[in-house]
Amino acid sequence: MKYMLLIHQGTAPVPGTDEWERLSDEERQEVYDDYQALAGIPGVTRADVRMEPPATATTVRVEDGRTLTTDGPFVTIKEALGGFLYYEADDLDAAIELAARIPAARMGGAIEIRPLAES
Predict the structure, then answer these.
(1) Tens of pLDDT along 43-87?
(2) Alpha-carbon gap, residue 58 to 89, rounded angstroms
């Protein structure tokens, strides 16, 4: 089964923020190492992708044939999507085990697991 793991940052510190700077060098290195380790797990792809903060988003809608754009995310949410990865696993339990290894899950965020539709 193929899964998409959506990384919701929540209050997890990310590089370039004051919260990140308050982490010790060891804590920051542990986060980097943990994300790097994900890339080496069989079945994981695109683990090295990270999105910019929600404030950089542009939301697109089409109403009455007109394309409308809005700066920022469509809705304001505490747990903004910060990244994603794909994982091909035998079952949901394996995907849950992988999700628990993602640093954001233990640092104030959450990981949403969605099965991918077969084409």
Answers:
(1) 998 655 566 766 777 777 788 989 888 776 555 555 577 888 999
(2) 33
- How many domains does the chain contain in total? 1
- Compute the CA torsion angle 6, 10, 11, 12 (nearest 10 deg): 0
Q: Could you tell me the CATH number of the domain that includes residue 58?
A: 3.30.70.1060
pLDDT score recorded for residue 74: 57
- Give the domain extent around 44: 2-115
Task: Characterize 79-113 residue by residue with b for buried, 16 or more Cβ atoms within 10 angstroms of its Cβ, and e for exposed.
Answer: bbbbbbbebebeeeeebeebbeebbbbebebebee
pTM over 0.85: no
Amino acid symbol at 115: P
